[in-house]
Amino acid sequence: MNRATQIFVPGLVRIKPGALARLGVYLRRGEHRRVLVLAGQGLPQAITAAAQAGLQAEGVEAAGWVEVEDNSFEAATKTFAQLPPKLTAIVGLGGGKALDMAKYLAFLARLPYFAVPTSLSNDGFCSPQASLTIGGKRRSLAAALPQGIIVDVDVCLAAPRILWLSGVGDLVSKLSAVFDWKLAFHRRGEAVDDLAALLSDATVHQFLARPNFDAQGMAMLGTALMLNGIAMEICGSSRPASGSEHLVSHALDAHSARPRLHGLQVGVATYLMCRLQNQQAETVDALFRATGFWDAVRADPFSRAEWLEALRLAPGIKEDFFTVLTDRDCLPEAQRLLDEDTSLAGCFL
Length: 349
Known about the structure:
Layout: E1 12-16, H1 23-29, E2 34-40, H2 45-57, E3 61-68, H3 73-81, E4 89-94, H4 96-109, E5 113-117, E6 129-134, E7 137-142, E8 148-152, H5 153-158, H6 161-188, H7 194-208, H8 215-235, H9 244-255, H10 262-277, H11 281-291, H12 293-299, H13 304-313, H14 324-327, H15 331-340
Parallel strand pairs: 1-8, 2-3, 2-4, 4-5, 5-8
Antiparallel strand pairs: 6-7
């Protein structure tokens, strides 16, 4: 069977102000009357109340409401063994931990999954993988895309601005990721899905048209990050959304004394990789200046020593994954950029 016949994408997409209060409406329309909600720990009471009121108003029963503190594989399997009977869907509400846990449980239970992110710090809310820890180490596990995506723009605007900047950093990483993918084609003959590559690349340029921290800018970021997840589903891999810049971030997650938000790490790494790839670094720089991304990084600088170590380790993080870091020894050039590039001034100590 051709892979194109096996692609499943969200049938419900609501990215607009006030969407959270209509959660019950969207579930009822899909004939989901009994659901499990996995919510992020410590969500503002107003968010929890709006979701619960929306469900109750439409006669949708929350058969369980679980606050997710630990998004480990071990916790997921324990929760799976205790799933309430006769569920028709699983809802993830909050940040990455809750959404990844909900996504993976829905995958195991073969139930529809509805993603309700309360911030847009990365593209994980619509990706075909769940990021869980196994034995304390982060792993990406197979999962399914959500059947529905509900993004309340007002809720996301009320979240800390640093989370939006993280989402900007994760989005722009598609520029270096797609370049790495095409480099792997030219050097190794790795197949490139042109539609997935085009879609992922286009999401960045769509957002560049209006990279503002307002309702329209937030909606555009949410749409772009969602389409990145669909690009991964189209080609069956993370290639259109993850390249050398993500390898650097994974190395930092494993070895840094204090890993930062994924999108902040990936964003800075994207700028570095684009310099090494000799493409679109000026575009990334202009976006980071316009949004205040660089200012946020300088307010809490990274460790130069940790980044050099991450750059050294990055090529070996993922087996048989060709990127610019595999193509040549980039460490001396990267070290020079950390020391001399004016855009990176103040970003490292």
